[in-house]
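S1.2 Input.
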Amino acid sequence: MTTTLTARERAAAQAYIRLMEAARSVLTDPELAPLAGVYLSGPMAEADEALRRAGLTGNEARLLRLVSVLRAPGGPGRP
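S1.3 Output.
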């Protein structure tokens, strides 16, 4: 089954991926981890807004399916 992403769904999935990557980077650095709230507030706000615009707030299952589509080899945006 092929999943086609709308522009807003793609933006939401990409914002979520950026948030997860930022969280991983901040939380694995012992010097940055205590300041996680400061470093992650921007990416969290971006993801929240993108999810709201895409109508995905509270629909984690759909969001994670979209993220899987983006991250899959040969998926949109992947070689």
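S1.4 Remarks. The chain has a mean pLDDT of 90.
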